[in-house]
Design brief:
The protein is α+β, with helices and mostly antiparallel strands. The chain folds into two domains: 4-211, Endonuclease III, domain 1; 222-328, Alpha-Beta Complex (Nucleoside Triphosphate Pyrophosphohydrolase). The chain contains 13 helices and seven strands. It has helices spanning 4-15, 27-36, 42-55, 59-63, 67-74, 81-96, 105-108, 116-127, 136-145, 155-168, 173-186, 299-304, 313-328, and strands at residues 222-233, 236-238, 240-241, 252-253, 264-274, 278-288, 296-297. The strands form two sheets. It has a five-stranded mixed beta sheet with strand order 5-6-1-2-7. Helix 2 packs across helix 3 (42-55), helix 8 (116-127) crosses helix 11 (173-186) and helix 9 crosses helix 11 (173-186). It is elongated. The mean pLDDT is 96. The protein binds a DNA duplex (11 and 11 nucleotides) through helix 2, helix 3, helix 6, helix 8 and helix 9. It catalyses: Hydrolyzes free adenine bases from 7,8-dihydro-8-oxoguanine:adenine mismatched double-stranded DNA, leaving an apurinic site. It is an enzyme of class 3 (hydrolase). It holds the Pfam family HhH-GPD.
Length: 329
DNA sequence: AAATCGGGGTG
DNA sequence: CACCCAGATTT
């Protein structure tokens, strides 16, 4: 029988991407991949996924992970509370679930970092529980399938879509849930959907799919100006650890003031870093200090052990050039 | 319900 | 430039 689900499953079997975290059905790997994929393009998280599994191959290793090593493994991926929640979750699983991930969506949802979507994804993909896993792709696909001309971020519309998805669920549930997401990622994409290549176009009610889903306007970002001072003494660089809450919590940063004693200052140029809700307009200066204090690190330490956010990367690269030039002379 | 939390790819 | 991405959590 020709149903939306059958067409979708058939398309998925032939056309899905060959992704590393689909190689086996290990719940641990699926969990890690789902957390990494939150608000992150699959291609962007793949290299992190491979490296992370070598460093932290199982729940026990993750529960015992060194916090700095964990942040270093996540460096550049963003939303760093995700990796802290991974460790918290691993510890809770040791205590509450005999050292394993629980197997139901309801139990998974009680763990740190695992919300409605991720719980459904793990339960359905790893354990074949017949539950939904509604991410941005699924919202887009269903808003178009049913021509939903409402703000999809409202609770009411969200419930409506959930209901539609729930009624559509079929076995094999792991394949079906991933098929909807894959369609959203490859065919039913934002702005310019590839409807002519869509396996379920005959089931789609959207008259203007490019205009869906409807979302509220985004607020403008605030701008903040920062002047950074990169203290250098004897080829070593001073870094501060940021506070444990808020933006880039627990990550390292350059100073925002001059040291008590210094010899000279050299500009490292300007760079504007854009976050979701704020924009940092930065200018940085290299400052040669004549006193060694605590908190100075060698370049290879920074390279291998220190979690420096991408916001500071351009200045770090310029710093490397300067220090390398000095060593040559 | 709205704000917060990263970073990068894309039109 | 704006938008969005296999969202969760806090306010």
């Amino acid at each position: 029988m020709k149903t939306m689900q059958n067409e979708l499953l058939e398309w998925y079997a032939k056309n899905h991407r060959d992704l590393a975290f689909r190689k086996d059905q290990d719940a641990y790997k699926i969990w890690i991949s789902e957390i990494m994929a939150q608000q992150t393009r699959i291609e962007a998280m793949l290299p992190y996924f491979e490296r992370f599994l070598i460093l932290f191959p199982n729940l026990t290793a993750l529960a015992n992970a060194d916090d700095e090593a964990l942040h270093k493994a996540w460096q550049g991926l963003g939303y760093y509370s995700r990796c802290r929640n991974l460790k918290k979750c691993a510890i809770e699983c040791m205590k509450r679930f005999h050292g394993e991930l629980p197997k139901t969506k309801a139990e998974l949802k009680t763990l740190p970092g695992i919300g409605e979507y991720t719980a459904g994804a793990i339960a359905s993909i790893a354990y074949k529980e017949k539950v939904s896993a509604i991410d941005g792709n699924v919202i887009r696909v269903f808003s178009r399938l049913y021509d939903i001309q409402e703000d999809v971020t409202s609770i009411k519309t969200r419930r409506k879509i959930e209901s539609l998805v729930d009624r559509s669920l079929v076995q094999p549930i792991d394949q079906y849930n991933q098929a909807i997401m894959e369609l959203g990622a490859l065919i039913c994409i934002p702005k310019v959907p590839k409807c002519s290549a869509c396996p379920i176009r005959e089931f789609c009610q959207a008259s203007d799919p490019a205009s869906l889903p409807i979302k509220p306007e985004k607020k403008k970002r605030k701008k903040e100006k920062k002047v950074l001072y990169v203290w250098v003494h004897d080829g070593r660089v001073h870094l501060n650890k940021r506070k444990a809450t808020g933006l880039l919590a627990n990550m390292y940063e350059f100073d925002e003031k001059l040291p008590a004693h210094y010899e000279s200052v050299v500009s490292l140029g300007e760079y504007t870093h854009i976050f979701s809700h704020v924009e940092w307009e930065m200018q940085a200066n290299l400052v040669y200090t004549n006193k060694e204090d605590s908190g100075f690190y060698a370049m290879d330490e920074i390279e291998n052990e220190i979690a420096l956010p991408s916001a500071f990367k351009p200045f770090y690269e310029r710093l490397k050039e300067v220090i390398f030039d000095e060593e040559k002379n």
